[in-house]
Write a sequence for this structure.
């Protein structure tokens, strides 16, 4: 706003100086080079038909029709009514505050529910003074992948909720990533006041997960690499963990989780080979922790077919968002365990 007001003042000064110096063309060229006339015109237009927006129309159509030789006159500064389509604010620019309130309330309730769930399962019986602690042996580091995955899911949920409220996609992604990292930072702080401690490696994973969708938005090639999850509750769910008062929740039921890196093979192959590879059929590389609670804890690795739900469901409206949401899940598909040992599965999901 300050830049626009300063621009208007500068143009006025240039006009009066030009009357004294007679260097109209040179000064007008400087003015055009310094300011974006189009932006200035749209931002300084007085809309007398709306009580919500007021602007001032610095240049009318006569200025554009006369070209660069036209010198600003008094009539060029007189405001006029917004009568054309471009004068009326576009509905696409208006944030739907009713929807935004609904989104805020729903997300606040969800976060509160997650907090209660985690408090009862992790933190309630394990309060200590704040401290840092990195545990690079816990769960064979599957939890680090979980932090990245959770960050991306939260960014998606927050950003789509904001888009539904008519916030532009790029801004919604930024706010979504910020909200995702804020929530995960809160979880890390709670860990810092419990027996687990604030894990800086976990926090780094949170940052990667929260901002990866933003990076994908600006570097579309990275959309060919996506993190997915398949999960079935294991025998450990709701059972005591390694700390007094702890019980395993869905978040740390690593025996039941398989994380997958989905590769969009169709886009990654050379063009001639891509023609014969179905666009909806990526490949996925899976990793899973086994016997996490025992001394023989180890990792298993898989290769499986995957599904790009955005290519299976119609790419329109609500179904497009549904497809994007389902792409965080790896659905049952033919798979091969490649380590330890080789095992073929007609359909594999988890466990």
């Amino acid at each position: 706003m300050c830049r626009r007001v300063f621009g208007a003042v500068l143009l006025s000064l240039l006009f009066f100086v030009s009357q004294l110096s007679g260097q109209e063309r040179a000064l007008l060229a400087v003015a055009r080079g310094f300011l974006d006339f189009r932006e200035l015109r749209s931002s300084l237009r007085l809309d007398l038909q709306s009580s919500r927006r007021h602007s001032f129309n610095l240049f009318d159509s006569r200025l554009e029709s006369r070209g660069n030789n036209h010198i600003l006159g008094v009539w060029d500064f007189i405001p006029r009514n917004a009568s054309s389509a471009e004068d009326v604010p576009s509905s696409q620019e208006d944030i739907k505050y009713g929807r935004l309130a609904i989104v805020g309330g729903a997300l606040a309730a969800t976060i509160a529910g997650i907090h209660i769930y985690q408090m009862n399962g992790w933190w309630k019986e394990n309060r200590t003074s704040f401290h840092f602690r990195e545990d690079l042996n816990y769960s064979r580091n599957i939890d680090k992948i979980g932090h990245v995955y959770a960050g991306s899911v939260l960014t998606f949920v927050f950003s789509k909720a904001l888009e539904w409220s008519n916030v532009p996609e790029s801004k919604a992604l930024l706010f979504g990533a910020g909200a995702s990292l804020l929530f995960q930072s809160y979880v890390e702080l709670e860990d810092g006041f419990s027996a687990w401690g604030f894990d800086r490696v976990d926090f780094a994973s949170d940052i990667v997960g929260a901002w990866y969708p933003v990076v994908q938005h600006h570097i579309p090639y990275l959309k060919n690499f996506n993190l997915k999850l398949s999960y079935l509750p294991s025998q450990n769910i709701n059972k005591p963990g390694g700390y007094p008062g702890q019980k395993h929740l869905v978040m740390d039921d690593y025996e039941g989780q398989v994380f997958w890196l989905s590769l969009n093979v169709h886009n990654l192959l050379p063009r001639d080979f891509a023609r014969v590879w179905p666009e909806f059929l990526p490949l996925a590389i899976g990793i899973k922790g086994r016997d996490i609670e025992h001394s023989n804890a180890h990792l298993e690795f898989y290769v499986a077919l995957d599904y790009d739900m955005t290519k299976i469901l119609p790419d329109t409206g609500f179904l497009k968002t549904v497809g994007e949401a389902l792409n965080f899940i790896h659905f049952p598909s033919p798979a091969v365990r490649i380590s330890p040992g080789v095992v073929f599965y007609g359909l594999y999901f988890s466990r």
